[in-house]
């Protein structure tokens, strides 16, 4: 149980003890009006909500927006059946289902892209929710519909409550929700989120703590299940969006140094192996680096991995490797652009200067960017444009402006085009 001090100070809980919900709704509606009119956030809007409103506005979301249904019928059924969270739905229903039914709430589960996969609960409440497209297959990502508990939970990777007029979309402001992300226990990757949606009574610390506890139970249950379709000796490499890759090997999670991360990425790309000279050229721009240096790195890596995983002559991994890089590439090759964007967690080892890694990073980014531009999906383009790696991506912002020509998007595009046209040595004046 949360202590009174935790209830007062926890920024993820919507209402502090003793707050008047009616008065808070009035204040939030006024703050929402001010934000949508002039872009400034007034008290008592919580920082987590203020940040979400800003992300929503940068993504081109309007307060009158409606969630769009992306998956229907057979597509929804097959996607749900293959999703990792399908394996824990019996547990989730057992734990959250009675709470939702007794309180006339809804139990919802979304994927990492904010798409609702399951929406269950009280029949009358479901009918009301249907009118705002809170239905299976609809995308409730922040970039699609603005601030809401499941979408914000996957965006910030934290359990969060969203109370009434804290929602960005006006038609959602009669609802209150609490959601918590669920992670792959092997890789730490966000798989989606569990959500409870209903009335204002959900703006209580206990509802958030309960949803978070069920999410942790789901992760523990996933950890007990054998990985579906994966060989026991398969290595799992996570290298997108991080300078130090993570390797799951024989039940151990290993955080690799940057150089070892580069080596693993390259060996995963070349299951046939690489010679010492090939690795030298792939890893080092400085031609003065000697084979002795590389051999020392490989010896350290062999000790970290454990016996039998790294062979030599040529250097190669003795077990198969599944990497997040390969997942993105496979999905792109099959035309599953939205799924590729979901799997993409950021540039490959962004701090790496290894020539071969830099080439692979550019090739992956260029391929995904081209697919997003060709797809012209406003939500996918907004997700890229609002990510740290897409803030200055002129081509993406131009594409976004053609499908979401809001004032905020046009203003950002004009700013980027002005910077591009500025003469060399020009610097934007400081703004105090």
UniProtKB/TrEMBL annotation:
Gene3D superfamilies: 3.30.450.40, Winged helix-like DNA-binding domain superfamily/Winged helix DNA-binding domain. It comes from the Bacteria. This is GAF domain-containing protein. Residues 251-317 form the OmpR/PhoB-type domain. GO terms for molecular function: DNA binding. One of its GO terms (biological process) is phosphorelay signal transduction system. InterPro entries: GAF, GAF-like_dom_sf, OmpR/PhoB-type_DNA-bd, Sig_transdc_resp-reg_C-effctor, WH-like_DNA-bd_sf. Keywords: DNA-binding, Transcription, Transcription regulation. Pfam families: GAF. Coiled coil: none annotated.
